[in-house]
Specification:
It contains 1 helix and 8 strands. It is mainly beta. Strand 3 and strand 4 form a beta hairpin.
Length: 155
């Protein structure tokens, strides 16, 4: 009886892990765009006076800054103008500068972004006093160089 049960389990497992797809199917096209499609956010992060009840460490707060972004896809250039919002914490106004902004961008489908020449990583507080350069690589392997610059910060 056990042999029959084990044989049925083996038979069921064998057929459940096989594919019904035919071979020689056409490959799906790979995405060829290597663009930065938008600036998703520009933020400022700081340690608040409040402490975590679990770790006792200061809690990190984040403020969404107002911004406009001019994207020139042909040139591979993005110029960002940042403005402090009205509800910005007063005790952080002196610390807000282009040297500690967080910039987040969106890319073409399935593309990857890599900083060039010592440029800042995106998504973390970084120095935006200079032009930062990146290479975006599409899923098909095409590459395009991009520059991102915060041209102004109005407090």
């Amino acid at each position: 009886m056990k042999k029959i049960l084990y044989s049925l389990i083996l038979l069921f497992t064998t057929f459940s892990f096989t594919s019904c797809l035919d071979s020689n199917l056409d490959d799906l096209p790979e995405y060829g765009d290597a663009d930065i499609t938008s600036v998703s956010a520009v933020n400022y992060r700081y340690f608040s006076d409040e402490k975590s009840p679990v770790s006792g460490e200061p809690i990190v707060e984040e403020v969404n800054l107002e911004y406009t972004a001019d994207i020139d896809a042909k040139k591979g250039e993005i110029k960002i103008k940042v403005t402090k919002p009205k509800d910005f914490p007063e005790n952080q106004e002196d610390k807000l500068s282009k040297s500690n902004l967080v910039v987040i961008v969106s890319l073409s489908t399935a593309a990857r972004l890599q900083p060039l020449e010592g440029s800042s990583k995106l998504g973390v507080p970084s120095d935006w006093n200079k032009v930062n350069s990146y290479v975006v690589t599409s899923a098909s392997g095409q590459q395009k160089n991009w520059s991102i610059e915060v041209i102004s910060l109005t407090k």
